[in-house]
């Protein structure tokens, strides 16, 4: 009686151990899938859609994270200097109209970009002629203004130089009491190369009062009345332009029609 009870206990323990061994051994994946498929039967309606949406949301999250990480640069924002700049907010501008290369400006946000480019002491402007974005004042050269108004348009100094060497300075500005001009290269190379000659008595002309301004303006307008083009080179100028030295240049207006005649001659030659 005691033995059969003991045997019963042994069998009970053996079965429990066996079950534990069977169920704790990892079954292979095929077996698990089959078991799940058998149990689950038909998927619930909308189940696939939910899984797809979840997958999409996760994929987007990863994508945005990677994009954000790739956008972060290892340099600080030029405006606030305490946040890292973002690649997508990099702006390309010119420091002077004479530069061939743009420079990079790095920012962390739209606000920082705006404050730096348009909110500070030296705002950037877009030249109406060459369409480049250029600093309004030269950061390397005494903060000279790097743009002029020409025909109601803001143009950079380089374009302004081309315009006045071609057409002479604006008569309207002279009539309004101004002395329109610009700094050329040392020795006023550009007007000389464009065929302008210095006007006797008006080179390195010192202007500090209205009398001198009048004399200078009168001479320039006189030359224009005679059909001459006038260009004015700034030599030295007090900060703010209150007084300074200027040089007047003049050049005869080209007699036109020459180009047209050449064109006609060429046309004749070419058609032969
Ligand atoms: Zn910033
Ligand atoms: Zn320009």
How much beta, percentage-wise? 15-25%
Bulk shape: rod-shaped
Write down the Rg: 41 Å
Overall residue-averaged pLDDT value: 87
Number of helices: 9
Low-confidence stretches: 259-272
H/E series: HHHEEEHEEEEHHHEEHEEH
- Label the structural class: alpha+beta
Descriptive report:
This protein is α+β, with helices and mostly antiparallel strands and 272 residues long. The chain contains nine helices and eleven strands. It is rod-shaped. The chain binds zinc ion (2 copies). One zinc ion (ZN) binds next to loops.
Topology overview:
Blueprint: H1 2-24, H2 29-40, H3 47-71, E1 72-76, E2 84-93, E3 103-107, H4 110-118, E4 124-126, E5 133-135, E6 147-150, E7 153-156, H5 157-167, H6 171-175, H7 189-193, E8 197-198, E9 205-207, H8 210-225, E10 228-237, E11 244-252, H9 258-271
Antiparallel strand pairs: 1-2, 2-3, 4-5, 6-7, 8-11, 9-11, 10-11
Bound molecules: zinc ion (2 copies).
Concise structural overview:
The chain has two domains: about 75-165, no CATH class; about 170-270, no CATH class.
List its salient traits:
272 residues; 2 domains; alpha+beta; single chain; 3-stranded antiparallel sheet; 4-stranded antiparallel sheet; binds zinc ion; 44% helix; rod-shaped; 9 helices
